[in-house]
Design brief:
The chain has helices spanning 52-57, 66-101, 134-137, 169-178, 212-215, 242-247, 309-312, 399-402, 469-482, and strands spanning 2-3, 109-110, 117-118, 140-143, 148-153, 158-161, 188-193, 200-203, 216-219, 226-231, 252-253, 262-267, 270-277, 282-285, 300-304, 318-325, 339-343, 370-375, 390-397, 416-419, 426-427, 436-441, 444-453, 464-468. Among the domains are: 138-231, Mac-2 Binding Protein; 242-482, Thrombin, subunit H. It is α+β, with helices and mostly antiparallel strands and 484 residues long. A hairpin with a 2-residue loop joins strand 12 and strand 13 (270-277). The chain has nine helices and 24 strands. The chain binds 4-(aminomethyl)benzoic acid.
């Protein structure tokens, strides 16, 4: 994070960056060599037949006969075969369990319980791909800053708000699950007055115990006049009020709990990139942070709720289970510079570890909307990453302006958003990548973007460029759903 407006932040060096033996044991001298096969009392036989005991007694160490060797070999083979059979049964049982429980391999969504699997991109894309059209009949989204629940009607090819009449939390949990959230994080369903809608989805309460989506029908009226506002997770809360942040201009050291969604992503004990918590299991970062060999989840450790890099050195961090880079990410243009990280174990939310809200479709940010960036990035171009978490206020810059010849000359694609001061002095920098660009709106903090690129740091007319999160929300939900 670069800032020349505030007092120079203290300088810290970042110190952050594994047989059975082939022959039976020799019998004691004088003992019978074949105790199992021959009686110890010699049978009465004609005297010219040599007696086994006599034959043996004078020989010190005769190897056991072939029969024992064959028996031993047979026993070994039986044991090995038994072990192999047990292993095969265990593997078969695992696969039977997997397909009964999960049906579809990870990264695919099942069409109802048909066993047919679809790619997340085919889900709610307006084209019916599942045998019974399930990919287009369970489409829900949260719209606008009030989290208005909307259901897609494949018949009229449009989104409808859901009338709050007869709605309850059980329905809310189903809708949240269909967006990729876990029921564990469910927050609330509330009725909010809204007069702007002309058509609704209503619950047919007499339809009996059938699927939520089969109970919904479109109607021109909603008796209560209230539509469902659905919160699948308590997101966007900071223990520090926005008014305090407004008084700090130009970049400062953060306090604990101020940016509770900010995480530090480490490779081999070194801070490499930032990220933002969106659920206990999922983080958003930049695709360019997880390119090449860094696409291996085992490379990463995640630190949450910690301000100083020094402190992270003594902790083990969270392990990463899965990394999903946007399929249309382009290394050269930085188009679609977003990635998801799934943690092996969920984060426990506290005052200092909390999720940020993903922007809903239909959210309007002002052309110069005040936003904030945070991270452990360099404090000047070419500098080392910072020991402290820093933050700075950066206004959004309109795309058309940011694309002007004297700024980025058409390099700002619809998946990008510019923020910063064209006069220079405040910006994100090396090490801030993947971290959050947030704004405070309707009492919650929203993830507007993820730090992506820029020419230098804090250079006049070269503001920071961020992934445009509003464009990615749908991709994020579909991939969370496909990898639950
Ligand atoms: C980086 O390399 C980086 N000034 C991040 C942000 C900016 C430049 C570089 C924007 O992580």
């Amino acid at each position: 994070m670069t800032s020349t407006l505030g007092p120079p932040p203290p300088y810290y060096e970042n110190r952050g960056f594994q047989p059975e033996p082939p022959y039976a044991a020799r019998p004691a001298a004088g003992a019978h060599p074949y105790p199992q096969l021959f009686s110890t009392n010699p049978p009465s036989v004609p005297s010219y037949i040599p007696r086994v005991a006599t034959h043996q007694s004078s020989r010190p160490a005769a190897p056991p006969p072939r029969r024992t060797c064959a028996a031993s070999l047979r026993k070994t083979i039986i044991i090995i075969l038994s072990i192999l059979i047990v292993i095969c049964c265990a593997i078969a049982a695992f696969f039977i369990w997997y397909f009964v429980e999960n049906h579809c391999l990870s990264s695919l969504i099942e069409c109802g319980s048909s066993g047919v699997c679809m790619s997340p991109s085919q889900w709610c894309d307006g084209v019916s791909d599942c045998p019974n059209g399930e990919d287009e009949t369970r489409c829900v989204r949260l719209f606008g800053p009030n989290f208005i629940l909307e259901v897609y009607s494949p018949v009229s090819k449009s989104w409808y708000p859901v009338c709050h009449d007869d709605w309850n939390d059980d329905y809310g949990k189903i809708a949240c699950k269909d967006m990729g959230y876990s029921v564990d994080t469910y927050f609330y369903s509330r009725g909010v007055p809204d007069v702007s809608f002309k058509s609704y989805m209503k619950l047919n309460t007499s339809a009996g115990n059938i699927d939520l989506y089969k109970k919904l029908y479109s109607s021109g009226s909603c008796a209560s006049g209230n539509v469902v506002s659905l919160r699948c997770i308590e997101c966007g809360l900071s223990s520090k009020s926005a008014s305090i942040m407004n008084r700090i201009v130009g970049g400062s050291g953060a306090v604990l709990g101020q940016w509770p969604w900010q995480v530090s992503l480490h490779v081999q004990g070194t801070h490499v990139c930032g990220g933002s918590i969106i659920t206990p299991h999922w983080l958003v970062t930049a695709a360019h942070c997880v390119e090449g060999r860094l696409s291996d989840p085992h490379s990463w450790r995640v630190y949450a709720g910690i301000l100083n890099q020094d402190e992270m050195l003594f902790r083990s961090g969270y392990k990463v289970q899965l990394i999903i880079s946007h399929p249309d990410y382009d290394t050269d243009s930085k188009d679609n510079d977003v990635a998801l990280m799934k943690l092996e174990t969920p984060l426990s939310f506290t005052e200092t570890v909390r999720p940020v809200c993903l922007p809903n479709p239909g959210m309007m940010f002002q052309p110069n909307q005040q936003c904030w960036i945070s991270g452990w990035g360099a404090e000047y171009q070419g500098g080392k990453t910072s020991n402290n978490l820093n933050y700075v206020a950066v206004p959004l810059i309109e795309r058309s302006r940011c694309n002007s010849v004297y700024i980025y000359n058409g390099m700002i694609l619809p998946t990008m958003i510019c923020a910063g001061d064209l006069a220079g002095g405040i910006d994100s920098c090396q090490g801030d990548s993947g971290g959050p660009l947030v704004t405070h709106h309707h009492s919650v903090w929203w993830l507007v973007g993820d730090t992506s690129w820029g020419t230098g740091c804090a250079t006049p007319n070269k503001p920071g460029v961020y992934g445009n999160m509003t464009v990615f929300t749908d991709w994020i939900y579909k991939n969370m759903q496909a990898n639950r």
